[in-house]
Fold:
Amino acid sequence: MIGLAFLAPDILDQVAAGRQPVAFTSEWVKRRQLPAGWDQQRQIVGGL
Structure:
């Protein structure tokens, strides 16, 4: 779960506010490796 510490700040804000995509769950995060680049993270999470 250390990877969650490196999520883009705006994605973290969405999660904290409960506005993340429905498919963006802890299980989804555990099964995948998100890239370090925030723009790439936004594209992936935004596509869920």
Observations:
- The mean pLDDT is 91.
- Residues 11 and 42 are 7 Å apart (CA to CA).
- The helical segments are 9-17, 26-31, 38-46.
